[in-house]
Amino acid sequence: MHIQVNTDNNIAGREDVVRFVESVLQSKLGNISDPITRIEVHLKDESATKHGPDDKRCMVEARLQGRQPVSASHASDNLQSAVTGAVDKLRNVLDRELGKLRAHR
Q1: Is pLDDT of 84 > 70?
Q2: Alpha carbon distance 50, 12 (integer Å)
Q3: How far apart are CA 70 and CA 8, in angstroms?
C-alpha cells in the first residue's frame, strides 16, 4: 500500500504530519490493506492564518485493486482530529465495499 500525503502551504511541520498520517493509516487500515494499492491524503487549512471552528480538513482516497476509488473527508478544529475522523469514515466505507466484494464471490 503506497501512501501519498499532500498538504497546502498553511500546514506547518510537514514531516511530523506525514509520520502521524502514516501511523494512523497503518493502525486503522493495516488489517484490511491487501486490496488497497494506494492511499492519497489531502490536508488543508481552510482559513489559513485565522483560527475558526472546523477549519482543518482531511480528505482520504483509497484506490482498490479492480474497483473504483473510495473516499471520505472530515473537518475539525485541529489536524489530528481531522485525520482520525477521515480515516475512521474511510474504514467504514472500505468495510462496506469489501463486504460487497466478498458477498459476490
Answers
A1: yes
A2: 14
A3: 22
Look up cell 485493486; give the residue: 65
Identity at 98, one-letter amino acid code? L
Q: What is the pLDDT of residue 41?
A: 97
Q: Which domain holds residue 80?
A: 2-104
Residue pair 29/94 in contact (Cβ under 8 Å)? The answer is: yes
Residue 36: CATH number of its domain: 3.30.160.100
* Three cell numbers written together for 4: 501519498
Cell 490536508 belongs to 43
Strand 36-45 to strand 2-7: parallel, antiparallel, or no bridges (unpaired)? parallel
Assign 3-state DSSP to the chain and report helix, strand, coil percentages, each to 5: 45, 30, 25
Please state the pTM of the whole predicted model.
0.88
